[in-house]
Amino acid sequence: MGGVWRDEELAALCAHQLLAPLEADLDMSDIVADDEDASTFRDFLMSPRPDFGVLVRAKDYFKRQGQNRDSGLPANLAAVFYLACISTALVQLNQRISDSTDESVVKKIRWACGLPWVDAMIVELLPQAEAFLSSK
Q1: Helix crossing, 75-93 with 7-19: angle to 10°?
Q2: I want to staple 71 with a disulfide (CB 3.0 to 4.6 A). Which of 58, 65, 86, 128 is the partner?
Q3: d(CA 115, CA 96)
Q4: Residue 71 CA to chain centroid, in angstroms?
Q5: β-bridge mates for residue 40, sequence order
Q6: Tens digit of pLDDT for each residue in 77-114?
């Protein structure tokens, strides 16, 4: 899907992705998730103890989607969810799931927080990861 997306369209897509069931986008057949209550991306990203394997799988999924011009997700939206997965791992699990440098992640977090269409839950999560990285 190419083209230019309006902010209201991206906001609607962001909200839709947050409410999407994890199983709709991720092959979970070989993973037994610890948190069965986290059935949507929103629930999963807000979970106090998200499953590490599912988190890595979600991060990889959004990375692939962002790199694939023919994917159903706009690249900017995929990048925001990719950052949300990285941030969730840092904040909730004290784990790194990306090889990106701290400086690179912080720069991307600041970029994502400046986008007018990003859901408030994600906008609250990302600075927590920035603070985590800055406190090291």
Answers
A1: 50
A2: 65
A3: 24
A4: 16
A5: 21
A6: 999 999 999 999 999 999 999 999 999 999 999 999 99
Rounded Cα distance, 68 and 53, in Å: 23
**In this predicted model, what pLDDT tens digit does every residue of 47-83 receive, in sequence order?**
999 999 999 999 999 999 999 988 888 999 999 999 9
Can you read off the two tokens belonging to residue 78? Answer: 């995929």
* Length of the chain, in residues: 136
Distances (CA, A) of 52 to 7, 11, 24, 33: 32, 27, 18, 9
Q: What are phi and psi of 116, to 5 degrees?
A: -70, -15
- Phi and psi, residue 21, nearest 5°: -65, 140
**In the structure encoding, which two tokens stand for residue 44, read together?**
């999963």
At residue 134, the 3 state secondary structure works out as: helix
In order of 40, 101, 106, 107, 122, the CA distances from 18 in angstroms are: 7, 26, 22, 23, 10
Task: Look up the pTM and report it.
Answer: 0.90
| Cα distance between residue 3 and residue 27, in whole Å | 28
